[in-house]
Amino acid sequence: MPAIEIHDDGIQIDARMLGEGLGLEPDTIPDLLRQGAITSRCERGSDDDEGRYRMSFFYQGRRFRVVIDDTGRILQRSTIDFGGQDLPGALRKPGS
Fold first, then answer.
1. How far apart are CA 70 and CA 61, in angstroms?
2. Which of 20, 45, 62, 95 is most deeply buried (CB count within 10 A of its CB)?
3. What 3-state class would DSSP assign to 35?
4. pTM for the structure as a whole
5. 89 φ, ψ to 5°?
6. Region of 48 on the Ramachandran plot (φ > 0 left; ψ -120 to 50 alpha; else beta)
7. Contact in structure between 65 and 75 (CB atoms under 8 Å)
8. Cβ(11)–Cβ(53) under 8 Å?
9. Element (H, E) at 18
10. How far is CA 17 from the centre of its chain?
């Protein structure tokens, strides 16, 4: 399976990639998602960013973000880790 797949009903990301981005073991990802410990946001680009998606995943003091095109090709990825501190609210807002 590719790391990211786009389907009519949503976008699917591989647990290995998400685990790597959040510093977690891939086999823990499904349970953490079900428990609501990992949250996410997906934004669709407009204007100059048309055809792009930005997905942000949050777990404790970490944010993993990946930008893809409309075929699922990864254009950019980044992780911010605040260690033992909670992630600042400003990093959870769209556009940050």
1. 29
2. 62
3. helix
4. 0.85
5. -55, -35
6. alpha
7. no
8. yes
9. helix 15-22
10. 9
- Give CA 45 to chain center in angstroms: 15
Report the distance separating Cα 75 and Cα 67, nearest Å: 5
Q: How far apart are CA 82 and CA 69, in angstroms?
A: 28
**Can you spell out the DSSP letters for 38-81?**
EEEEEEE--GGGTTEEEEEEEETTEEEEEEEETT--EEEEEEEE
How do residues 17-47 score in pLDDT, each as one tens digit?
Answer: 999 999 999 999 999 999 999 999 999 999 9
Q: Which two tokens stand for residue 39?
A: 């949250």
